[in-house]
Amino acid sequence: MLKILQYKDQHSLLSIILITCVRLVLTVGLCLFAFYFAVASTMGPAIAPEVWIGEISLDMIIRIGMLITSIGITLFAIVWLVYPLLRLLYNKITARYRSQ
Where do the domains of the chain lie? Predict the structure, then answer.
């Protein structure tokens, strides 16, 4: 999707730091959006208090769905930031030992 934010072996240290900073800013933005989404799920009066699905009201299903979505966005953002960086570091370390 964002090919400019992918780490490559031939990148210099400065470009790796720049890519990491951009990814960090995007991750913080996603986490802030997820936090707002979690707070919004607890705001306001009941949406449809008279509608029940089994033992749970429709309002509670919507609120729980928003909370689960915000948790999913946060986990995705953290994995999106950390995993490629760890993979790059692992490849750099193993390449150094393979060359010796």
Answer: 3-99
